[in-house]
Amino acid sequence: MPPTTFNDSRISMQHGAGGRAARRLVESVFTPAFSNESLDRLGDAAILDARGTRLALTTDTFVVSPHTFPGGCIGSLAVHGTINDLAVSGAEPLALSAGFVLEAGLDIDHLREQVDAMADAARAAGVPIATGDTKVVENGKCDGLYINTTGLGIVRDDADLAEDRVRPGDAVLVSGPIGDHGITVMIARGEIDIEADLVSDSRSVLPLTRALIDALGGDVRWMRDATRGGVATVLNELTDAAPVGVLLEEQAIPVRDTVRGACELLGLDPLHVANEGQFVAVVAPEKADDALRALAETPGGREARVIGSITADHPGRVVGRTPFGAKRVIDILVGDPLPRIC
Amino acid sequence: MKYVDEFRDARTIRRLADEIAGLVDPGRTYRIMEICGGHTHSIFRFGLSQLLPDNIDLIHGPGCPVCVLPMGRMDVGLAMAEQDGLIFTAFGDMMRVPGSTGSPLESKARGADIRMVYSPLDALKIAQENPERPVMFFAIGFETTAPSTAVTIMRAKAAGVGNFFVFCNHILVNPAIRALLDMDDMRLDAFIGPGHVSTVIGCEPYRFIAEDYGRPIVVSGFEPVDIMQSIAMILRQMKDGTAKVENQYSRALPWEGNPAARAALDLVFETRDSFEWRGLGRIPHSAYAIREEFAEFDAEKQIGVHGQTFPDPVEAQCGDVLKGAIKPRDCRLFGNACTPETPVGALMVSSEGACAAQYKYADVTIGSTD
Q1: What is the pTM of this model?
Q2: Could you tell me which of A12, A299, B154, B276 has the fewest CB atoms within 10 Å of its CB?
Q3: How buried is B271 (Cβ within 10 angstroms: 0-12 exposed, 13-18 middle, 19+ buried)?
Q4: ipTM summary value
Q5: Tens-place pLDDT, residues A22-75
Q6: Which domain holds residue A261?
Q7: Residues A149 and A180 in one domain
């Protein structure tokens, strides 16, 4: 990735979309100012050495609107998102913190609902919310409620995950069907006027990453939570960080018909649509079947698939191959995926 | 998924690729233009040019309405957006398109009320929900989207909505094709006709392409099988030495198009004397304006704009690319001054533009097709 110059004079919505603009913002404003060894790796979580113990530390802020959507809510998302960042870093979460920005006028029952959802999600994952903070801002200053969560975990001794461990020939797999969350939220916002039997995939992936590392240990080379920007973005981040390319077999990528249909209608690519309960993993090629078996034996892992492989052929590029043999480059978007109508 | 999978079937596509290979004369070059941006998108998304013999050149045409919109029109629209209390609505396609002072997304960041809609009817609904505020819909598109704008204006009139305005930038496909065919140095051999536009205007209006200019045109669907089959149909015509209008997209497209949609267009719109196209210059009778009877909804008449507009940069060679005279990478600005994040010329603006597609895909060798 060439050094980026930041010419944007103001923050716009696309700086928050997890695409190229977001990356430009991070790399030109934040990393130069804060630069240090663990930050500069720009992983899902920072890995810190605490007198011989590897700690994983991550933080995330949740501003989704609407607060409640089929399959989840901002509260459950705030817990799952941070647990997932620890999980894909090969860590066992120790605890979470929760920070709330509340808008004056927010209905207390609505807040209670979100807090209960957080408590349920944390309990189900077996991770305590150990500390917290509350701030209130004037009416009109935030969208009812913003939540920040920070997660601390201990990296497993048998986990060895890093971009530079990825080798040509390795298998790329995804933990389940992609795009459910992004399309569900678009429908819940009323942006697309369709009725669909679709729910967000918001969940903790900890049982799945745990099963994968239990079965494969160091043969799991790299994992990433495929949130904003989707699978395409995390794979492009991999090919930016390591001298390899990715070749995806397009027909192998699991996508539900509802998501495919909505994407066809709107001119979106499911590979760019957000997920909140799916991750991408790169594993040693001879262990791909073991990996799928370990995932399938874990609740919620039966729809995991191998979707492609690491290649030396086109370093720096993610390429998709169609069933009829043609190829296309799969890039990162500048900002949010925008529907094409005209 | 029904109506999708059967048109992406690997075996059918390979068979069509073989058929195409058998139809070409290796001694010549074929320059085939797909007019519509939707086709350009499919061709890149499915890597279809990799399945064609080397001597078939697909030239990506002016059929992306976002690409050919002059920067000055965006300036006018955004100047409207900056008026007190006005709600600016547009399709998602428009949100990142730059005017001379930035895109709608950047205007929004500066505080303008800019909203993305999926249909002009959504914009009308916003107007009805906000009766105290003017609501402007930035109408864009060919004959494909123009009928829904026309119907929305008819509904606004019927409902007596007084705060709804349309900034009309609808354009017509055939005057642009004629302008291309009339250019000196025009090198196009045949056309893949725009399927969605044709569902409104039908196939008859393309007759001049075949009869006056001797170029075959096959109106095509948007799936890989459709496009490959259309190319085979074009090559068969060329082999037989004929030039006619054919309809490959008959599953969705009746030959006569949609008379009801055309009636709505006639009722609400009239043709402008001429209209500026980014990259092609002024083209006579190539755009719609709102008729006097509906002038109360015409943003150009009802919303005074004092913003400054800037002409498009002249250095970009979009016109030469469009007529097939040069490849995008041969333009003097390509990849230097003109990139997808800082587009100068029309064809770099939208991901459906020929230059943006080339920029994204051409700097990588992605190996053989098997």
Answers
A1: 0.86
A2: A299
A3: middle
A4: 0.79
A5: 888 998 999 999 999 888 888 889 999 999 999 999 999 999 888 999 999 999
A6: 163-329
A7: no
